[in-house]
Each structure stands twice: as structure tokens, then as C-alpha cells.
Amino acid sequence: MSFYENDPRIGEIAISSEELHRRVDEIGQQLGAELAGTNPLFVGVLTGAFVFLADLVRAVDMPLEIDMISVSSYGNATDSTGVVRLLKDLGSDIEGRDVVLVEDIIDSGLTIQYLRSTFAARRPASLRVVSLLARERHQRNPDVVDHVGFDLPEGWVVGYGLDAGGEYRHLDEIRWFDPEKSAPSG
Ligand code: PRP
Asked: 114 in a domain, yes or no?
């Protein structure tokens, strides 16, 4: 894909397509082993997780189902205070199910904190959280996340589901983004 080649805001590759696929395959295989014998429900958090979810479920070699949820958060990026609002709920009942929540990013942790408590109240048999990217402090906390792909880079990145103003989610790799530069004209 090369449509962004003349876009000065798009920089070098931060995480290559090969690195992404290798790590996503590893996490998929780990989840397959952990969830053997169950019929798990994988829940993607819209919109950013859609590419990760699509690759992850294809790396899990077992029967499973997929659902989506959408939330919006207005928070404080450093102390996890803020408000999360449910925009689109699940289409399925998760009581007694083995659920895997799939996120693209855990930054302040506000969104995942809300989703964990919302899901726990619905009494699933088990709940796992998987995030493609997460801040290091969250990766050491099993109450936040169970599997993480990569450290969340300092600075703005786009691609593989991550956006800038709704654009660039379909880039095959994760690239640096510079909001100070001007968008190409036309
Ligand atoms: C991003 C991401 C998480 C949330 C994480 O969503 O997908 O849901 O932010 O941030 P937090 O840990 O600080 O709560 P965003 O609101 O950018 O929406 P998008 O997925 O549609 O891009």
C-alpha cells in the first residue's frame, strides 16, 4: 500500500507487518492452548481493534465466536479518571462464557477498567484481556491485561487499526505520525 507515500505526516515504520504477524500468531497460539476445550467468545473493542481481532482469531485454531462492543471515553491520560460511555453493546449474553476482550491500546487504562467491571457483572466463566499495545506499567498488572503484543510507543502511531482523525487504520504496519506536518493537498 503506497497511497501515503507523499503524505509528510506519515513517518518510518514503528512496528513492521512481519513483527505484527509473528507476535499476533504467538498470542493466538497461547490463547488456543489456554482455552482448549471451551467455546470462547472474542469481543473486539471498536474501532481500533478490528485489524488485530481479524488476525488474532485466524491464529486461534479452535471453534470460537466473535462479537463487537463500542465505547467512548473522555478521560485523563495519566490518572485513569474520566467517563466511559457504552455506544454499542454486545449482541450476545456472556454469562457462563469464556470471554476474550480484544483491544488495540491500553493507555490510561480507563477504557479497559470500565469494560472489565461491566463484563464481570455479567458473570462470564472467565475473562481475559488481550491488547496489541499497552503501557509498560499496565503489562505488569494481571488485573488489567493478560496478553500484550508490544509496548505502546511514546508518540503518535497509526496503522493496523490505529487512526489519526479516522484515517490510516488500514495501513499494513504501524508507522509514526507527525501531526505538526501539513496534510497533502488534493
Ligand atoms: C482507544 C483504544 C482504547 C482506548 C484506550 O480508543 O481503542 O479503546 O482508546 O485508551 P485508555 O486506556 O486511555 O482508555 P479510541 O477512543 O481512540 O477509539 P478508536 O478505537 O475508535 O480509535
From this structure: yes
Residue 173 lies inside a defined structural domain of this protein:
yes
Angle at 139 between CA 107 and CA 92, to 5 degrees: 70
Please give the residue range of the domain that contains residue 68: 2-74+81-177
pLDDT in tens, 12-46: 999 999 999 999 999 999 999 999 999 999 999 99
Please report, for the domain that includes residue 155, its CATH number. 3.40.50.2020
Q: Answer yes or no: is 186 within a domain.
A: no
Q: Which of 73, 86, 102 to mutate to test the pocket of ligand 1 (most atoms within 8 A of CB)?
A: 73
| pLDDT, tens digit, 9 for 90 and up, residues 150-167 | 999 899 999 999 999 999
Q: Give the Å distance between the CA of 75 and the centre of ligand 1.
A: 10
Number of domain units in the chain: 1
> Ligand 1, closest atom to CA 111?
14
Q: Would you please indicate which residues are annotated as catalytic (active-site) residues? A: 107
Q: Which residues of 133-162 are buried (b: 16+ CB within 10 A; e: fewer)?
A: bbbeebbeeeebbbbbbbebeeeebbbbbb
> Cα dihedral sign for 116, 122, 127, 132?
negative
User: Are 25 and 17 a contacting pair, CB within 8 Å?
Assistant: no
Model-level pTM?
Answer: 0.94
